[in-house]
Amino acid sequence: MLWEPLTAASYAPPPSRDYDVEIVRDEFGVPHVFGATDADVAYGVAWAHAEDDFTTLQDVVLQTRGRYGTVAGADGAAIDFAYHLLGARETATRDYAKLSEATRAIVEAYAAGLNAFAEANPGQVKRMSLFPTTGIDVVTGFVLRSPFFYGLDGVISPLVAGELPPRPPVTLVAEEKGSNAFALSPSGTTDGATRLVINSHQPWTGAVAWYELHVKSDEGLNFAGANFPGSPFPLLGHNRHLGWANTVNRPDLVDTYRLVLDESGERYRFGEEWLPLESRRIWLRVGFGPLTVPVPRTVHRSVHGPVIVNARGAFAVRYAGIDDARGIEQYVRLPKAENFAEWKDVMAMQAVHGTNFVYADEAGNIGLLYNASFPQRAEGYDWAGVLPGDDPDALWMDYVQPEEIPALYNPPSGFIANANNSPWVASADADNLRPEDYPRRLGVEDRVTNRALRMMEIYREDEDGRLSREELLALKFDKGYSRDPSGWPAGWWKLLMAVEPQSEDEQAAKRLLATWDWSLDGEGDADALAAYVMQDGARRGYQGEEMGGAAETLSRATEKLLLHFGRLDPPLQDVLRVRRGSADVGTTGGPEALRAIYYAEEPDGRLRGTIGDSFIMLVEWQADGELKSSSIHQFGSAVERPGTPHYNSQVEMFAREEWKPVLLDEAAVRARAAEIYRPGDARSGDGKR
Questions:
Q1: Is residue 482 flagged as an active site residue?
Q2: How many angstroms separate the CA atoms of 683 and 642, rounded?
Q3: CA max distance for the chain
Q4: Are strands 291-301 and 306-310 parallel, antiparallel or unpaired?
Q5: Full-prediction pTM beyond 0.85?
Q6: Annotated catalytic residue: which of 10, 16, 146, 179?
Q7: Rounded Cα gap, residues 562 and 547, in angstroms
Q8: Has the keyword Signal been applied to this entry (predicted)?
């Protein structure tokens, strides 16, 4: 066993310079970061975010160093293995000089902000030698995280376990629960406004939990939205002219190749040649307090990409964005786009390798871009299977052109929506893209989610196809489940209704469940029971797993409700809770509903929300050109600061589906400021400075 800091590599800090930045906290504690340059702003973002969640920011840095296992044990070591297998730091280091000077200045300023906070708060530092952080650390984080959003884990994990990956791959990340996004142009609204609903479903804590902020520089940046820990700017939101939402998509962007090895296992055949299989010994460090257990592993690589050797053979993995560090470049350019053409120019970089973009702007343009870096795959291969690793013609080297990617812009209906479903269902039936217009080898998904079924059912019920503001919000906050036989709820319901009860209590539960109205709106006697049983179905349905276990699910729900509530029909709001510190508020909604709340069972039998609706934003360009923006966060800005006012200051509003204002105008922000300070200043926390 080793004392971990003694084995950790250290890195030189970014070049020293002064940063001209001010942080303005509004009445909800949301940071508005004002700087002379974009780099100044990035420094301030790091400082403000560290004030609110330094714990998670350090976890992210540990991941970019391959050291997360030292604090997160075996689960962290699995991420460290992926870090080594993909060569995330090697990619970031190799391509760092290729990034623009402006982008390098931004990531270095962000790293400098983290370093300054760590130096000012040494008692909060988790691991010695973690600081100073560098710009390469920031870029490494983007390289490492990106491919897991579109399902790389669904290929690597089975191969590591000695199995062949499912085709197409499915996500194995429990925290990934989808998202919603809606865009309406003036032709799709009753008042001529353009509206955008940003509604990404993320874990409520951790490395991919949303943090709300507003950033403004004298270099043209003025953007409100949210980021993940480790990002210098918001990843979604809006400026004065345009905005976008993101939803996870699942195209098949990962290919698996079976290698032919020689007898030594050290070379593989590629065409007429035998090439050396690159091998490198790594050490995964699994933490036990201040000590670590070093665990040796070997990672391999071929011309295709990372290689995993198991009892079935040697398998190479090639995936969209492999060895590409440009994602951070695209994300720092996007917030400065001022019109549709500029936005599309930035998106044409194809450096964000997978995730839907739903777009809207002040001119009334709306769109869905099924964004992905689609491999330029050759004809004649089964791209849904395991490919021959010795055939050079099966190795793709480039991506299809941006104009070949499925995109729906400005449909006549004025309505666009996505809920992690196929891009073929996004608007009025007459406006939708046609799958026959795109080659199957692109790997575009065909799946449909409950949320997609519900959004289209509700939209089609509207007589003129134009939604008021109130109708749009009713759609977004719908708690219902579709009875459409193509959706997982109908299949799960059939299994539940086929259960043979094993006791009188289970018989009573089944009778009660049969009366459920298919909505977790808190208005029916069966809602609490339905909430207990629907999560199992939602998990299997969303992940594409085979349905099963209905009898066990119903039995367990019956037992838990009677144990903790003494009845099968307690009010849903007594059961489903938003809990944070002293806040404990009942709410409605459920797993894979448009009002998405996924939950963990508490010792007292309550279901505590943990994933789903989190940061939500409503952006409106009125018919007269006025911009109005509103948002809400499930907890508050002080994400990991228990005992501070904004640790849970938005909980009640979130549970009641209420909004708070979002301001871009600097004078208006300062007029409503609760606190104004510079990084390093002593904060009063009780007023303007």
A1: no
A2: 17
A3: 74
A4: antiparallel
A5: yes
A6: 179
A7: 26
A8: yes
